[in-house]
Design a protein that fits this description.
This protein has 299 residues and is an alpha+beta fold. It is 64% helix and 14% strand. It folds into 2 domains: 91 residues, no CATH class; 183 residues, Heat Shock Protein 90 (2-Layer Sandwich), CATH 3.30.565.10. The protein starts with a helix and ends in a 7-residue tail after the last strand.
């Protein structure tokens, strides 16, 4: 019985000490961070309260102790708290970056299997009808994979590539599509060489080309031309994919591919990048990715 009472008393003392310690450090941290003007107001209110309730001496002691703590240790404690806060912010920023990388890898993964499955299906069809053409498409696919896989491994899922690399991959992709559409598909690239080193998100250019072929040229009996352009306008990189096909309905659902691009641009650049869809007067459609221009990845 006596032992139980002693244990309870010890528990009470430990809890009281822990609570007092927490209150003291809370008060100490408040003193370290509070501005002097706010502290003056606090002292004035404490003195008024002390005089009114005849607690003048405790009020004066509070002012003296808080002044001493503020002067002697406030600066050091404030620096410690500021460093701790900055460290927490850095950890949060790191976690947000890792989350964005995971989201980017997930979004990119939605595109790559789609292209690979379609190409393999095409090769399977051509094996039965045109073995030589199947061999050529197979060679183009190997060229595409040889160019794309090193970049995918280096970027851990493709956070960022260069416009030159994306143009190279798009050429290989269009070679495969020309093997399928034959004379119904013509291709033009108007991208200056100096833009080749500019950072540009992977797979976006190919997605625009896929979209132009699917919605603009394939439904058109005569087919048409895909034109890929790149230029810089007032520190903004414009990468356009235009076709002279049947055009698109701007009010219709734009589909997974374009929605994917918009979401990835928002993750990477926020409000500084956009995807613009336009209908040229001469017919067809133009899709333009516009983002901040940098000469190299390290600018």
């Amino acid at each position: 019985m006596a032992a139980t009472t002693i244990n309870r008393a010890l528990d009470f003392v430990r809890e009281a000490v822990a609570e007092a310690s927490a209150l003291w450090w809370g008060f100490f941290d408040w003193l370290a961070l509070v501005e002097w003007r706010q502290l003056y107001v606090t002292w004035f209110l404490v003195l008024v309260f002390g005089v009114f309730f005849q607690l003048t001496e405790p009020a004066i002691w509070f002012v003296l102790i808080s002044f001493g703590v503020k002067v002697l240790a406030g600066g050091k404690r404030r620096a410690e708290l500021t460093a701790k806060e900055e460290s927490s912010k850095a950890k949060v920023a790191t976690l947000e970056r890792r989350l964005m990388e995971a989201q980017m890898a997930t979004l990119q993964a939605q595109v790559e299997p789609h292209f690979l499955f379609n190409t393999l299906a095409l090769i399977g069809q051509l094996i039965e009808t045109d073995p030589k053409e199947a061999a050529r498409v197979h060679a183009h696919l190997i060229e595409y994979l040889r160019s794309s896989l090193p970049q995918m491994r280096a970027n851990g899922g493709g956070m960022m590539g260069t416009l030159g690399k994306q143009v190279e991959l798009s050429r290989a992709y269009l070679a495969i599509m020309q093997a399928r559409m034959k004379e119904r598909l013509a291709v033009r690239f108007e991208v200056p060489d100096f833009l080749g080193s500019a950072p540009f998100p992977p797979m976006m250019l190919q997605t625009l080309i896929e979209n132009a072929i699917k919605h603009g040229l394939e439904p058109k009996v005569a087919g048409g031309t895909i034109t890929v352009r790149g230029h810089v306008n007032e520190a903004t990189l414009h990468v356009d994919v235009c076709d002279d096909g049947i055009g698109i309905d701007l009010h219709a659902d734009e589909g997974v591919g374009l929605a994917n691009i918009r979401e990835r641009l928002a993750l990477l650049y926020g409000k500084d990048a956009e995807l613009v869809i336009e209908l040229p007067p001469g017919g067809g459609a133009c899709a333009s990715i516009r983002l901040p221009y940098r000469m190299t990845e390290f600018d």
